[in-house]
Amino acid sequence: MIRVLEPDDADAFRVLRLEGLEKSPTAFGASLDDEARYTRGEFLRRIQPTADSWVLGAFYNANSLVGCIGWYRERGAKVSHKSTIWGMYVTPAQRRKGLARSLVDETIARAKSAPGVQQIQLCVALHNEAAVQLYQAAGFERVGVRPNSLFVEGRYIDEEHYIRWLP
Fold first, then answer.
1. How confident is the model at residue 123, as a pLDDT?
2. What is the DSSP letter of 48?
3. Using the 8-state DSSP alphabet, how is residue 154 labeled?
4. How far, in Å, CA of 134 to CA of 100, rounded?
5. What is the pLDDT of residues 108-154, one digit of tens each?
6. 45, 124, 118: which is closest to 83 by C-alpha?
7. For residue 82, what are the β-bridge partners?
8. Which pLDDT does position 63 carry in this prediction?
9. Is 92 helix (H, G, I), strand (E, B) or coil?
10. Residues of the chain with pLDDT under 50
11. Whole-angstrom Cα distance, residue 85 to residue 119?
């Protein structure tokens, strides 16, 4: 089951988010050390759904959060046609079951219903072939590479930038 996370999901989101940052540190711009210091209130604020931002969760047996993806619309008159995917993660035990694709597809569908949103952008670590394949299969196009975008575990990580145009 996939649904928008609600305030009652804040603790489960925190656990899943920190797991992702620990197990896949090169896949995120955020660091485990930084986010482990966030309060419950910060995690609650991050998942509070609005018309311009939300986090979707994938649930196993309807009560165990095993995947998530965040979306937000840019603020400001000149950029409000753009939106961004952030924090995509599926716990390793639940991978290769279509959950990541379902989360991306649901995000695209919801973004299409946001008035005036024309594109979704995201970044992927250059070496993350599974994520690149997922996003390309969902219609995202590579628009550039930012060299040395992240410094993780003593090495620089290049990030690819992708855009999915909305009809």
1. 96
2. -
3. T
4. 8
5. 999 999 999 999 999 999 999 999 999 999 999 999 999 999 999 99
6. 118
7. 119
8. 82
9. helix
10. none
11. 11
SS3 73: strand
Query: Nearest 5 degrees, angle CA 86-CA 166-CA 126?
Result: 40
> What is d(CA 59, CA 97) in angstroms, rounded to the nearest whole number?
12
Tokens 């979704």 belong to which residue?
120
Tokens 């219609």 belong to which residue?
Answer: 139
Q: Which domains can be identified in the chain, with CATH numbers?
A: 2-165 (3.40.630.30)
Q: Provide the residue type at 130 as one letter.
A: A
Q: Which pLDDT score is estimated for 61? A: 84
Distances (CA, A) of 44 to 25, 67, 76: 22, 17, 24
Q: Give the number of residues written for the chain.
A: 167
CA distance 111 to 12: 24
**pLDDT the model gives residue 2:** 95
pTM score above 0.85: yes
